[in-house]
């Protein structure tokens, strides 16, 4: 699988303040799709995966997919968007962990419904 041109333009990890939460810095990761997830930029994520559906399953350097980043960054709305776009929810990273593995390792939220 060859990378789309915009994926090959990797950016260093930097911070900006124009993301979903103005009080927190935005992080640019290894690809625009991963950055959109972590920063809660649902509209950008939608546009990226609409333009190129392969990006919904695009792995970073560790094999982590955007769905895994949703779990790690607590971005439920982005996760729902990816699942509706029919990403591979069973795709594993280089350590054979799936998004479900990451979710199971997260501490439980005391405010969530049980």
Report on the structure:
This is Inversin. Keywords: ANK repeat, Repeat. Pfam families: Ank_2. InterPro entries: Ank_Repeat/CDKN_Inhibitor, Ankyrin_rpt, Ankyrin_rpt-contain_sf. This protein has 114 residues and is mostly helical. The protein has one domain (5-105): Serine Threonine Protein Phosphatase 5, Tetratricopeptide repeat (Alpha Horseshoe), CATH 1.25.40. Helices cover 39% and strands 4% of the residues. The chain is built from six helices and two strands. The protein has helices spanning 5-8, 32-38, 42-51, 66-72, 76-84, 99-105; strands at 15-16, 26-27. Strands 1-2 form a two-stranded antiparallel ribbon. Helix 4 (66-72) runs antiparallel to helix 5. The longest helix is centred in the middle third of the chain and has 10 residues, at 42-51.
């Amino acid at each position: 699988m060859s990378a789309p041109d915009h994926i090959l333009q990797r950016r260093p990890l930097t911070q900006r303040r124009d993301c979903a939460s103005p009080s927190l810095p935005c992080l640019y990761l290894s690809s625009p799709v991963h950055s959109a997830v972590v920063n809660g930029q649902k509209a950008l994520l939608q546009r990226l995966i609409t333009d190129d559906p392969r990006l919904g399953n695009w792995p970073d350097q560790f094999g982590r997919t955007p769905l895994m980043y949703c779990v790690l960054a607590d971005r439920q709305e982005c996760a729902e968007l990816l699942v509706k776009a029919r990403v591979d929810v069973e795709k594993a990273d280089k350590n054979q962990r799936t998004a479900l593995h990451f979710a199971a390792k997260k501490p439980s939220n005391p405010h969530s419904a049980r």
